[in-house]
TrEMBL record:
Transmembrane segments: 6-26
Sequence similarity: In the C-terminal section; belongs to the histidinol dehydrogenase family.
InterPro entries: Ald_DH/histidinol_DH, HisE, Histidinol_DH_CS, Hstdl_DH, KDSR-like, NAD(P)-bd_dom_sf, PRib-ATP_PPHydrolase-like, PRib_AMP_CycHydrolase_dom
UniProt GO MF annotations: 3-dehydrosphinganine reductase activity; ATP binding; histidinol dehydrogenase activity; metal ion binding; NAD binding; phosphoribosyl-AMP cyclohydrolase activity; phosphoribosyl-ATP diphosphatase activity
The name this protein goes by in its record: Histidine biosynthesis trifunctional protein
The keyword Nucleotide-binding appears for this protein: yes
One of the record's GO cellular component terms: cytosol
Length: 1156
């Protein structure tokens, strides 16, 4: 045991390490929004792809590279992605191969920010020139270190010094490679630099914590970049041949993986599974990774890179010896053996060579839990393609080894060679035929094995097979080898004291690390033989864990790492825990699933009566219902966050069921392991109660003649084809189907944060703020913010045709909305003497927002104003952005007069919403705000409706305009195209969907030609081009599928071009407004048919109606009760009031009944 001083400093160091390592686990995800991000190598490849992600997430971005032409092209791409005019996006041409250039580049990038160092540095610059070491000169070796290490180290050095001097809490992200963990032939001038860079990053990760600077490193695999193309041009042919199957990642995918790891705060960020395995396998497990996943990856790495010390074949032995063999690793179990192995033991089946097994017998052994089966050469040919190679080991003798073909070698993961004796020269020669395969040697000589023979084979990368009859729990003798001696034979400590660092993990807690101890050959041998945790104290000698405290350990397995100098003990810990402080681990208490399991086990024993957990344990029906409920909610979840949330709920209830039944996580893992070994698979179909019957497809509808139609002349400018993308719904998975329903939804939290300062300004400064914002956003110099009636004739001067059109639209819309109004109160006598009434009253003060922007919208003023007028609202405030001369468009002013608006507010955006919500010196406060708008307007509406001081409600969430058109072969291609374009021209974010019901390729092409031709004839063709490019054609087989997709999509506008359109209308469940038949364009509803065009978007048609007369009213209920009624109803009320313990409620009835 360590002395007290050493123990004290060890505890302090451990606590500091744990605190630092876990600190970021409790922080929010890192966001680049409004931060200055500096990206080296930012003109192409990974650097440019990362810069794009940063720009799209609201960062100020500086990119650095040598080639100015490529930088200019990159800046053009980045400018297209900016989300705010305030973003600073710049490029700088510098060479970063020396300290002076790196410092100068950083200084230049800091200038636009008054010399402040960037908040985050991303080192993506670098190059590789793979060659063989003997072909490189010294200059090439130095260049390799420069391009792989110094080019990033110089920038990091300059950046960190600036951050420390300026006290800027920053972020440094290095970019390494998979070769930072493990190198290969041909990379001798590159991999050393990446190894060194990893060491630098790991050192800085702890050092920079002192200055609140986080350091991370990304380890991508091969990337398909311009640099990779140049690398391949210089690469030796042999190296190209070795790497020809490595297809690599795209820069975009690599950048996404890098950004995701940066957000999560991972110190080592892996680009793919193979790199993750390399990281875990070389002990690159670092803070902020999922420890359970790391343990699994480490297991994969160990199983693919390490060689067992020996492989026991169970030919005899008592129970204790057999248990000891299973602790050392896999065992070879003869097919005829009757030995019973402990649950979870790893074993390979060794069949009877006199009676070779059949294919079915091999499959049966694997199904029953064998990890591998040793098969003769004759059977290996029959198993080709039937069973995974990782589950098969080929049985050979020295004479048949050369007869194995490449095809046979590819069907197995290892070879078991029967030899007369251990001849290392012979075995080395034979092994050359089986490179990449596990190699086991079974000598036929009956002489006892020795530690030296195990060591000799281990140096060859081979494993000695030892009959258990030649192993013993007793000291090694001339006839038997002690099993502990066999295990420790290949171990080689790199410590002066000869001890082995030993990681102790919890077998029953998913492999969670409990702590670090040390082992000696003596302690290892005792642990193997006794099955108890025994370690080596550097001060007190053998340390039998729990001998005095009672916190003993059962050793499940031992294994060495790939270098044979470190051990892992997998144990079941008993007592208070592993740590001497009484905690489960030396790294603090458990978390995640092990913590939940332990909590549930404790609650099973001692949960207080009436607690929810006890209810679950005692009420099987409740527990079953919760499991089914959470499983259903998990299936319905779509976003990453929702899936994680619902999965956590399901795991909680499922684990409660398991704990109640005495099932542990270890039991579940054992079951999973057993299932993974099975090679015989069931069909995997769901049970009948969980499946829905298929609806038979009706026969296709015959085509009808299409009316003649001539497109308008083509417009000028860009003549590139305008096309939608097409998907076939039948070939899409459930998750892909869900993706088709998604729109670019407003990031409400971000937008609310942006609009809040505007709202606060108006709230505190009133009209003065409105005037300032008009100058800033509308370029209008206002003296007053409100126009009051009567409105001057000159403000409403219109073209006569426009005026007549508005008058007719007003008449139609008014007529339809008057019909919606309730004619009389609802009166119901619920029982004799009890009369209940419901009646409508107008909302007294309403605000109507009429957008300006890219189109004049008097129609919106009509759609909002007329139902407000019909409902009887006493005060109608109409808000719309002013023109640059401070006036309001005459069309809107004329509508304001028609609807009887009490004020016209010359303001737009979030500031108009704020003025109506809170009121100003001249703007009346309203009780409800209506109207569509951009994301600023929508965010402002959401903000004020949640402010209890405002006491204002809104009509509905708003988003970009959208239309879904359903058409079969009877639809006129020109009509269909025109309907799609009528919404596409609203804005570049408009959503346009065509659901094609059984359309032939020719008919679909005809519609696409019409879309292209009609779009080019429009003045707003460039807006249409952008919106159509993101739009969608969904091919379905029949009307039922089309309507089902439409109901899932819940469009704002639904247009039905079907032969039985009126019949289809009966099946529509979710839509803002429906347009039925070939002569019902959506445009009519937008302007003048009579229905309202202020409709729910973004799928909100599932919950919201469009604006209507009732939107401007609220309902009040009343009741009147006679004496007779109170006699009838009073006893009921008293009984319920007493039941709820509300005596005064009951008393209000009692005093009246007493008086009757």
């Amino acid at each position: 045991m360590p002395d007290s001083d050493t123990l004290f400093y060890s505890i302090v160091a451990a606590l500091f390490t744990v605190a630092v390592s876990t600190m970021s686990l409790f922080t929010r995800k890192w966001s680049p929004k409004d931060k200055h991000c500096y990206v080296t190598g930012g003109s192409t490849g990974l650097g440019l792809s990362l810069a794009k992600i940063l720009v799209k997430n609201g960062a100020h971005v500086s990119i650095v590279a040598r080639n100015q032409e490529k930088l200019d092209q990159a800046i053009t791409e980045l400018e297209r992605l900016r989300v705010s005019p305030a973003q600073v996006i710049k490029s700088y041409s510098f060479s970063l191969t020396d300290a002076a250039g790196s410092t100068a580049a950083l200084d230049a990038a800091s200038q636009p920010f008054e010399g402040r160092v960037p908040d985050a540095l991303f080192m993506c610059a670098g190059a590789s020139r793979p060659r063989f070491f003997i072909d490189d000169d010294t200059e090439a070796l130095e260049r390799g270190m420069r391009d792989a290490y110094w080019i990033q180290a110089y920038s990091a050095h300059a950046g960190i010094k600036k951050m420390v001097r300026q006290k800027v809490p920053g972020k440094i992200v290095f970019v390494g490679s998979m070769l930072s963990y493990m190198s290969f032939m041909g990379w001798s001038n590159y991999a050393p630099g990446k190894h060194a860079l990893r060491g630098l990053a790991d050192g800085l990760a702890s050092e920079c914590q002192l200055y609140d600077i986080s350091v991370q490193m990304y380890f991508p695999c091969t990337m398909e970049t311009p640099g990779y193309e140049e690398e391949n041009r210089l690469k030796p042919d042999l190296l190209k041949k070795l790497e020809e199957t490595d297809k690599g990642m795209t820069p975009e995918a690599a950048a996404e993986a890098m950004y995701r790891g940066i957000q999560l705060g991972q110190q080592h960020i892996s680009g793919d599974l193979l790199t993750s395995i390399f990281r875990a396998g070389t002990r690159g497990i670092t803070p902020n990774h999922n420890i359970l996943v790391d343990c699994i990856l480490a297991l994969i790495a160990w199983s693919t890179m390490s060689t067992p010390a020996f492989l026991p074949i169970l030919d005899s032995g008592d129970e204790e010896l057999i248990s000891a063999t299973t602790r050392c690793g896999p065992v070879l179990l003869p097919a005829s053996s009757k030995y019973s192995l402990a649950t979870g033991s790893i074993y390979y089946v060794f069949p009877d060579t006199a009676a070779p097994p059949s294919v079915d017998q091999v499959a049966n052994w694997l199904d029953q839990g064998a990890s591998k089966v040793v098969v003769p050469l004759s059977l290996a040919k029959d198993l080709l393609g039937l069973i995974s190679p990782e589950k098969l080991v080929l049985l050979l003798d020295t004479g048949s080894a050369s007869a194995v073909t490449d095809k046979i070698r590819a069907t197995v993961s290892g070879v078991l060679l029967k030899t007369p004796a251990v001849d290392t020269d012979l075995l080395d020669s034979v092994k050359q035929f089986f490179k990449g395969l596990s190699f086991y040697v079974l000598p036929s000589a009956e002489t006892a094995p020795t530690s030296s023979s195990i060591q000799a084979l281990n140096r060859l990368g081979a494993t000695l097979v030892i009959p258990s009859s030649q192993l013993s729990l007793s000291p090694t003798s001339s006839s038997q080898l002690n099993i502990g001696d066999a295990f420790v034979a290949p171990l080689a400590s790199d410590r002066p004291d000869g001890l082995f660092p030993t990681i102790v993990t919890a077998f029953n807690l998913g492999g969670r690390s409990l702590g670090l101890v040390y082992s000696s050959k003596e302690s290892i041998t005792e642990s193997i033989c006794t099955g108890k945790g025994v370690y080596q104290s550097r001060k007190h000698g053998l340390w039998r864990k729990g001998e005095t405290s009672g916190a003993v350990q059962e050793v499940v397995s031992l294994r060495a790492d790939c270098d044979s100098d470190t051990l892992e003990f997998s144990v079941i810990q008993h007592g208070t825990g592993f740590c001497h402080l009484g905690t489960s681990t030396c790294f603090g208490e458990l978390n995640g699933l092990p913590a939940l399991e332990r909590t549930l086990q404790q609650r099973l024993q001692s949960a207080p009566q009436g607690s929810y957990t006890r209810r679950l344990f005692e009420d099987s029906k409740l527990l079953r219902a919760k499991i089914m409920e959470e499983a259903d909610e998990l299936c319905a979840a779509e976003t990453k966050e929702d899936v994680a949330f619902e999965a956590a709920d399901l795991i909680y209830f499922a684990l409660t069921k398991c704990v109640k039944a005495g099932v542990s996580l270890a039991d579940i893992e054992a079951s999973l392991d057993l299932k993974s070994k099975k090679v015989t698979r069931r069909p995997g179909n769901a049970k009948p109660q969980w499946t829905q019957p298929e609806v038979p497809k009706p026969p296709p509808t015959a085509a009808k003649p299409i009316p003649a139609y001539t497109t308008a002349p083509s417009g000028t400018g860009n003549t590139d084809s305008i096309r939608m993308r097409t998907v076939d719904l039948s070939s899409r998975s459930r998750s892909e189907h869900a993706q088709l329903l998604k729109r670019p939804v407003l990031k409400s939290d971000e937008m609310i944060a942006k609009v809040k300062p505007i709202v606060d300004e108006v709230r505190t400064r009133g009209d003065a703020a409105l005037i300032d914002f008009a100058a800033k956003f509308d370029r209008a110099q206002l003296s007053t913010t409100v126009i009051s009636p009567p409105y001057s004739p000159e403000s409403m001067e219109l073209d006569p045709d426009v005026k007549n059109a508005i008058d007719q639209a007003y008449a139609n819309i008014y007529k339809f909305h008057v019909a919606q109004a309730e004619k009389a109160p609802l009166v119901v006598e619920t029982m004799p003497g009890v009369t209940c009434t419901r009646f409508a009253r107008p909302i007294a003060r309403v605000g109507l927002y009429v957008p300006g922007g890219t189109a004049v919208l008097p129609s919106t003023a009509l759609m909002l104003g007329i139902p407000a007028q019909v409902a009887g609202c006493k005060e109608i405030v109409l808000a719309t952005p002013p023109r640059s001369d401070g006036s309001v468009v005459p069309e809107v002013m004329y509508v304001a007069k028609l609807i009887g608006a009490s004020a016209v507010l010359k303001s737009g955006g979030g500031q108009a919403v704020a003025a109506m919500a809170y009121g100003t010196e001249t703007v009346p406060k309203v009780d409800k705000i209506f109207g569509p708008g951009n994301q600023w307007v929508t965010a402002a509406k959401m903000l004020v409706q949640n402010d209890t001081d405002a006491l204002v409600s809104i009509d509905m969430p708003a988003g970009p305009s959208e239309v879904l058109v359903i058409s079969d072969m009877t639809g006129n291609p020109a009509f269909v195209a025109a309907d799609l374009l009528s919404q596409a021209e609203h804005g570049i974010d408009s959503q346009v969907v065509l659901v094609a019901v059984g359309l032939t390729d020719e008919r679909l092409a005809e519609i696409e030609r019409e879309v292209d031709a009609q779009a080019h004839a429009l003045e707003r063709v460039e807006i249409v081009r952008e919106s159509v490019r993101k739009s969608l054609i969904v091919r379905v087989a029949n009307d039922e599928e089309a309507i089902a997709f439409s109901n899932d999509y819940a469009p704002e506008h639904l247009i039905i071009h079907l032969e039985n359109a009126q019949e289809a209308l009966k099946s529509i469940e979710n839509a803002g407004s429906v347009f039925v038949g070939p002569f019902t364009p959506e445009s009519c509803g937008d302007y003048a048919s009579g229905t309202n065009h202020t409709l729910p978007t973004n799928g909100y048609a599932r919950q919201f109606s469009g604006v209507n007369t009732l939107s401007f009213q609220k309902h009040i209920t009343s009741q009147e009760i006679t004496k007779e009624g109170l006699r009838n109803l009073g006893p009921v009320v008293i009984t319920l009031a007493d039941c709820e313990g509300l005596q005064a409620h009951g008393n209000a009835v009692r005093v009246r009944l007493a008086a009757i």
